[in-house]
Every structure is written in structure tokens, then in C-alpha cells.
Amino acid sequence: MTTLSRGANAPLSDRRFRATVSGPSAGTCDLMVFQVTEAGRVRSDDDFVFFNNPVAPGGAVRLAGTDAVEVDLTAVPTDVHTLRLAVVLDDSAPGTLADVRGLSVAIGALDLPAEGLTTERAAVLTEIYRRGDAWKVRNVSAGWDAGFTALVTEHGVSVDDAPAATAPPVAPPPASPPPATPPVNLGKITLTKSAPTISLAKVRDKPSGTMRINLNWSRGAAKGGLFRKQTGVDLDLGCLYELADGSKSVVQALGNSFGSLNGPPWILLDGDDRSGTVSGGENLLIDLSRLAEFRRILVFAFIYEGTPNWSAADGVVTLFPPGGAEVEVRLDSADNTAMTCAIAMLEVRDGELSITREVRYINGGQRKLDEAYGWGMKWARGSK
Fold first, then answer.
1. What does the alpha-carbon distance between residue 3 and residue 80 come to, in Å, rounded to a whole number?
2. Buried-most residue among 16, 33, 82, 332 (CB within 10 A)?
């Protein structure tokens, strides 16, 4: 075994290999890889390989359990210059990476021990980089005291997505009680792949009043272990909207963008259920008396916190048009690698409101959702 000290490098002859991290006790550290350009930043969030995104685009990097990465250098995109292997202490783990005895990376016959770490909670241990037509590996052993957020932002990864704000955030409005049960209930309509669209003209000629869109889901059992595995799922309801005058934005808890029924966008999110145990779930309220003001509304759910597990969340969205039948969309055909699900598209055409089932899973946050549906907004990081 050849040992590379901090700053030392060596050529790599193998193009396919496994890099194994040793030292951390189970559940104390998370392994991640950044595919970066010569500028040292990811091309997009998809180049960040970690628990919630275990395979890089093209398959060049793949997590192999909690302590190893499988690398295929022949599949690395030409505009990716370096693969950086990093570890982050879990939030539940005390101390720093200097307290992790025997922290090192092994690649074939090479041993790259972490050296010189003191107060860091996140660090790049090793980087694999191009040198002409060849590949080399270097012991980096450099990190960040601030941990995960500092590490990923340094590499150009968005932690959370929220639209850029033009005014200070406001406190969430008090939860609105659900509207009274409509006097006429025509039953329940479930939108499916084979019958994905319904027009509200079929249940009421002139939609008016307030339509409630409800999300209910199960938080699931808490799990111990790696980064963000200790908590269940926090599933958020929101929508992208485009008004008839061309204005566009988002209604969601992230960034305190709760909307309003007293003015544009005439859409209100009535609260933020962070547990999945509130019987009423989360609700979007839409003023249908302003139907002519709308062009389209894309209803979505986003996993703000926790492991992507749409199957366990068992989400269902129900739309309650005033005076009409309930319209149900189940979040089935789950893709448990995705963070976002586009649920339903509401469109106004010739004065008629239609609802179309989407149930399209998106690998990424709201920015990726925007790109998939051509909303064309600018996004910045946010929190709630």
C-alpha cells in the first residue's frame, strides 16, 4: 500500500475503480462527490452525488453504500475536470472531523489519510482530476468549519430553492378554515393516466367562489443514520402560477411566499404542515371569481426535508370546486430518487377551467420544475 500525504498526488492507471472511506462510525458521516468544471463548481445540482442523488448524470460516479464510491472515468463528461470526494459530519454527531480516528480514502493500492484537520465538520478528502489525457489523484484534506452548507455552496450547489424576493418576507397568515361543504356533491372524480383531464364546465357552467386544493400525506417512520435520515418526510404543497397579464411567481411556504386572496395572485397557502399529522393537511385556496385573471397554475409537492420516499408518503391531492365533484389525484408511480412532483395543471382557455393530472417526478427543486414546464423565472436560495 502506497501512502499519499496531504497535497501529494499520483497517477491513476485504472479507469474503473472503487474509492472506500474508512474511519467514521456508522451513521456519523455522509459521503458525497462533486463533479466540477475547471472553475471548481458543478454544472448543475445534478453533479452533486449524495444520499438523495446517488448516481451522477451518465453514471460516472455512483454511491456504493455508505462508505464507498464506484467511479468510471470513461463516463466522465468532457466538461467535468475534477471529482471531489468529501465527507460531512452528521448533525447528530458531536465534535469535528479531527475526532474521527483513521479517516482516510483507499483507491486500489493507494492510501490517502486525512491530515491536518482541526475544527472542520466538512472536508474534501480526495480529488481525482484530469492531467492532459491522463487522470491523477490528490490527497486534499481541506475543509470548512461551518459544515455541509459551506461545503456545497463553495461548489455551486443550491441548498434550497426560492424565488428572489423584492420585499421582506412576511409572517405566515393564520390558517384559514376550509370552506363550507358545497350544497351539491356529484361524487368524486379520480384523474388517471388513461383519463387525465376534466373541465369544470362539466360540473358547473360558471366556476365561482373559492376552490380548495388539499394535500394529505403520511410522514412515515423516522430513521437513524446518514445525513437527513433522522427525520421523516416534510412534504410541502405549492404552485407556480402565470396570470393573464403575463406575471409569474410561486406560492409556497419556502421563502414565506404564502400568496393572498385579497389581491394578486388570488391564491393563498393557508399554512405549513411540517409533520404530516395535521388532519387537514395543507391547502391552497384559489378565488375562482377571478377566473379571467388566470392563465395557468401548476400544483406541485416538494420534499423540503427528509428522505425522498413518495411511496411511503402515500400523498393524495384533492381539489374541491365549489358546488362540484371532488377531483382526486394520487401521487402514484413513485420515483423515490426525485425531490419534486408536478401534480396537476390548471389552465384557463376561452373562459373555461380545466384540470389535468401530471404526476411527473422531477429530480431537483423548484428551479428544475420551472425548467421542465417553461416558466422562465429567476431563482435564489431560501428557507422557512
1. 27
2. 33
Q: Which fold has domain 162-380?
A: Lipoxygenase-1 (2.60.60)
Residue with cell 414565506: 256
Higher model confidence: residue 256 or residue 343? 343
Residue 316, burial from CB neighbour count under 10 angstroms (0-12, 13-18, 19+): middle
- Number of residues in the chain: 384
In the chain, the N- to C-terminal Cα span, in Å, equals 48
Positive/negative CA dihedral, 48, 234, 313, 330: negative
Q: Where in the chain is the domain with CATH 2.60.60.30?
A: 2-154, 162-380
Helix spans in 245-365 (H): 310-313
CA distance 134 to 378: 39
pLDDT tens digits for range 179-237: 443 333 335 788 888 788 888 754 344 556 788 999 887 654 343 333 343 345 677 89
CATH (residue range 2-154):
2.60.60.30
> pLDDT of 101-120, one tens digit each?
999 999 999 999 999 899 99
Mean pLDDT in residue range 59-85: 93
